[in-house]
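Please, structure for the following, as tokens.
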Amino acid sequence: MSGGRADPQTWLSRHRRSGQDAARLVVYTVPPIGASPAVHRDLAGAADDDIDVYSVRLPGREIRRDEAPLASMAECVADLAPRLASHSAHLRQPFALVGDCATSLLAYELARALERTGEVVPVATVAMVGRSPYFGYRDSQSHLAPTDRLREEVTTSGLMPPEITGDPDVFAMFEATVRADLAVYETYRWDEQQLQQVPVFALVPVDLAQDPRFTTWREATRQQTRLIPIDASARTAAQITTAITPPAELAKVLAELRDAGGDPIQGGSGSSTCRAQVVAAWTSLLPEARGTDDEHFLEAGGDSLLAVRLRNTLRDQVGRAPSLELILRGTTLAALVAHLDRECA
């Protein structure tokens, strides 16, 4: 059964009831690939007593095992978004969405879906060691691998324990679900439509602090993006794997969201005057720029290196930046201003 009327006990696991009559913040986490809600019990245990923590349960596992696993982002969003909207509306408390490694993308897409319906909107989405939508996991095709190779890959990456992958009969029980989970993220392509109202908190391991796959979350929202360095040395960084995010690090973020009481989090990368800053960056960087509205980036002498410089300059001065793909498609100055102007109010 789909939609918010389904029994919450089938698709949702409540880790711990708030110590208060009513929680001040509700958190919905998305377990990592192939995992069940139980893997986030420690994360929930670290949260303050006035924060309620739930984990979603997708088809193909535990008490939803008789349901076919979902193999696309669109299917996952269609399954979970109406349920989250109904459940959070019933609780009537501020809520946040938390993704773990690759499932940070599902948390992000759920926030976008909730924004579009307008019924309820999360106060934030939190990405725990997850790649940004701009990069995603399209460079991997593990979901298409033969069974033996898939077993080897998920073992090496730490995605599944050897107790499961080491026994072919046991692995066969989980193969369809993990293969479908991998397909969700390996076939995901971002349409470059940003979040409008929801800020993003990205927990990034210190050794990946300069890795654009994990630091370009600022492209995904028109609100604040905060990159929070963490020590996650136990995880396998380059793989789609269970991220070992220290519970205390997440608890700090959740406490800040709770204290904000559902109001926008202040600080971070804001925007101010737009057109003058865009024109100044454009004309100072492009060797043949005239600064006219119909001027194309490439015709103004732009190239790949200048696209990176323009993007970085706009990010520093305006507080938001267009994607490199948008610039290199040959955008006009007017189109670039219009793209950023909505963010510079």
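The two ends are 43 Å apart (CA to CA). Residues 1-6, 234-243, 264-272 have pLDDT under 50 and may be disordered.
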